[in-house]
Q: What sequence folds into this?
């Protein structure tokens, strides 16, 4: 909040106007900060905070081209040093010009703080309820935490100064120019891509006949079990999707630009490659679905599946840009990535993982309790559905961690509060239950004959 106020005041003083995309980036960055409020899991929170910083860079710097989308988030960190120097110089100039005004203000603030401390301490000693209220509102200032809190304060101060400095004088990244690549001849450009399209078409034909043909077809064609076939190849397909985006980018850079005929050729060849790549994306997601059905959902599996879905969306945006123009493509890709990070955090992936594994246990009576016990408090509502000892083994690690964590309002989340309520009502139920039995999930194939 101090950084937002500082940036708004600095931009206003510098005469900058509020533009629609600035509002989009600012609102998106604030929305991403809802993830740590809602969720206890650290990994989606980290992604959300990093994405929020990126959108903050977009809001402060402006711009719409590839240089701005790539480098604007980095400019915010560059201002961490220059912003402090800039803020210090401004404070010193204003202090010299208004020495007779700032000292009365500072003196008034010090008197007010002193009165609050003295009378607050007296009232806290007079009433236990009021003392508890103050204890929940005031952060712990123990010596053990003081260095860490001082570091956080300095980071916040430098961050606010960096935001204000960037808002007042942003770097215009779009002034960086990248010349178009040398246009290639039609045959030289198109032949490698046509060969690649044929390879994609052959692979996709086999995928459509084998992967969607049922277990008997898979076993007959490959000699593998359904679960083994599902596990095989997902990472290769993910890498193929990523490489295809690079191939499309280079192909556009070196595409022939002789006129309407060349434009139709580029759209036909690259459009075909994009469509075939979407089939590869669907195949990879189908493999992951089969793998999850066989072995359960994990953090890694839900993360890479989400990334694969976003890659499919990115390809669709590239196809749309070829039809309606590429002016908005950099912003659209950045906005879609931030949207996926926000949605990923708000669905609480740990809760989804727990829910899927509990549902799978209901169907197949197989579950990796040791893995589930390492999830965050987001998973507690789903794990609470498990019966007896399984529930105890899944929850006792989470309950132990929650009992050690600070539960004050400024250091907790809604998921932690909900988990504490559930555990307070039912408890973990652990009473000497052995929970260190090794899991044998990888030996289990639900589709074996």
A:
């Amino acid at each position: 909040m101090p950084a937002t106020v500082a940036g708004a005041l600095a931009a206003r003083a510098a005469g900058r106007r509020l533009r629609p995309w600035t509002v989009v980036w600012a609102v998106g960055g604030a929305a991403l900060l809802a993830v740590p409020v809602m969720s206890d899991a650290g990994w989606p929170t980290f992604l959300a905070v990093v994405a929020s910083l990126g959108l903050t860079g977009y809001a402060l710097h402006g711009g719409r081209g590839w240089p701005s989308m790539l480098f604007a988030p980095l400019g915010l960190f560059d201002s961490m040093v220059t912003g402090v120097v800039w803020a210090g110089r401004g404070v010193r100039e204003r202090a010299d010009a208004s020495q007779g005004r700032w000292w009365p203000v500072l003196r008034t603030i010090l008197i007010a703080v002193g009165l609050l401390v003295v009378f607050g301490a007296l009232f806290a000693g007079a009433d236990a309820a009021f003392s508890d209220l103050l204890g929940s509102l005031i952060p712990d200032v123990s010596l053990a935490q003081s260095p860490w809190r001082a570091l956080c304060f300095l980071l916040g101060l430098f961050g606010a100064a960096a935001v204000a400095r960037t808002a007042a004088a942003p770097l215009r990244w779009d002034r960086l120019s990248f010349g178009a690549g040398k246009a290639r001849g039609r045959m030289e450009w198109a032949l490698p891509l046509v060969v690649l399209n044929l390879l994609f078409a052959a692979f996709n034909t086999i995928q459509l006949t084998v992967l969607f043909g049922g277990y008997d077809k898979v076993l007959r064609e490959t000699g593998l079990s359904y679960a083994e076939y599902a596990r095989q190849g997902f990472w290769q397909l993910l890498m193929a999707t990523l490489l295809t985006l690079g191939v499309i980018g280079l192909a556009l850079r070196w595409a022939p630009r002789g006129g309407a005929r060349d434009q139709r050729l580029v759209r036909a060849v690259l459009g075909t490659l994009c469509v075939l790549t979407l089939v590869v994306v669907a195949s990879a997601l189908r493999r992951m679905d089969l793998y999850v059905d066989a072995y359960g959902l994990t953090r890694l599996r839900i993360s890479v599946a989400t990334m694969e879905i976003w890659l499919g969306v990115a390809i669709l945006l590239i196809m749309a840009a070829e039809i309606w123009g590429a002016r908005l493509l950099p912003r659209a890709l950045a906005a879609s990535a931030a949207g996926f990070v926000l949605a990923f955090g708000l669905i609480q992936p740990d809760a989804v993982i727990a829910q899927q594994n509990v549902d799978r246990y209901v169907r197949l009576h197989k579950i990796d309790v040791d893995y589930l016990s390492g999830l965050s408090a987001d998973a507690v509502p789903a794990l609470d559905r498990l019966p007896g000892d399984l529930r105890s083994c899944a929850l006792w690690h989470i309950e132990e961690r929650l009992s050690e964590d600070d539960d004050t309002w400024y250091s907790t989340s809604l998921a932690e509060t909900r988990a504490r309520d559930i555990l307070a009502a039912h408890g973990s139920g652990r009473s000497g239950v052995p929970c260190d039995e090794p899991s044998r999930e990888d030996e289990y194939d639900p589709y074996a004959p």
The radius of gyration is 28 Å. The longest helix spans residues 260-295. DSSP finds 20 helices and no strands in the chain. The mean pLDDT is 83.
